[in-house]
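Fold this: FAD/FMN-containing dehydrogenase
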Amino acid sequence: MDAALDALRDALPDLRLLTDASELEHYGRDWTRRWTPAPCAIALPASVDEVVGIVHWAREHQIALVPSGGRTGLSGGAVAANGEVVISLERMNKVLAFDPVDRMLTVQAGIPLQLVQEAACAQGLQYPVDFAARGSCSIGGNIATNAGGIRVLRYGNTREWIAGLTVVTGAGEVLHLNKGLVKNSSGYDLRQLIIGAEGTLGIVVEAMLKLTAPPPPTQVMLLALPDFDAVLSAFSALRDGLRLEAFEFFTDVALKHVLAHGGQQPFDEDHPFYAVVEYAHESEADEVAALSLFEQGLESGWALDGVIAGSDAQAAQLWRLREGITESLARYTPYKNDVALRISALPAFLHEAERLIAEEYPQFEVVWFGHIGDGNLHINVLKPDDLPQADFLRDCERVTKLLAGLLARHGGSISAEHGIGLVKKPYLIGTRTAEEVAVMQGIKRVLDPDDIMNPGKIFD
């Protein structure tokens, strides 16, 4: 390996290459913290040419590569635990161009999402994909997992906002995909194939991002709800009566942890479920409609209480109750399930899943929250302090297998927005058929003939 790394240094003398133990540990893991990081080196290219050079070197020496963005993933997709070289794109973090006519921003893949949002705002526009990790996740990572977040209800997932990609394949070829075209029916859309591929087909190095007009003035409401059926009733009523920007739910258990982490109690008493709702608020008619719907909810029983933000600061406090959940749970090393179903299938699935989890996890605290508008549920199982990690993971994986079977019966997916990576790989069959997996494996053999691109992720 030392000789191979010397060859890489000779081939790319300007390449920044890290081998210190602390750096290998830092870049070799993501937020899962379940594998011991063990890369052999960290490459930090500054150009597309350097990425191409690294791929050609890796093919020649048969060394696996792990693409790395902000490493905020929760499925082990950016883990390097077997002597791989991590390719971190953090130095490729620039805005390359803005086209005001096409409303398009071209960026390098290592740029953080928050900087993209700020660049769009500086042009009087917005890049609307958004989630709590905006300050640390990268656009390349968002593309690799087709990230969704809190505004999918209004704007969709990442793939809706990618107008073009520049990709270095596992064969070392540079592909310029779609080139920003709105209409392009000239064969297969390889851009969409790369989105969500978790770096297993190639490395995204540049992206052309579609921008849109800034959102209308909005208002934020927090609802207290008696049960999950009421959550869906609230969503249906508010979706029909308001122009929803976001609709996020969480449980009393989730709120308890956020409050312990510094959040502010919104009500005088506890309630089983809560929903943060953001909606367009451009006129008095919008305010009247929202209040009328809330009153209907109280009368019909799907709402127990509610509060409407009286200022931007209070709106931020209400959103903090939802966006602060992941941070508040971090110390418990939670085991995370990220599942998706059709919205109509959610009630039946949730009732069965709650029974399953109560029976199989009686000793664990379980935190539910998610994006109701797109059918995405997050299930976080918290590790007791006195339970060894290996025992905790063994119990969780046993129940996840049962949960995957339940999802299959309800037509759901084991991964909504975090990817498959290493964590969900055993459960891919059930979400995908064997025939689909075989097609995916065939595509990988074409674009990554030596299996050097993030091998072992998604499937073997």
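The CA atoms of residues 342 and 375 lie 6 Å apart. The longest helix spans residues 389-409.
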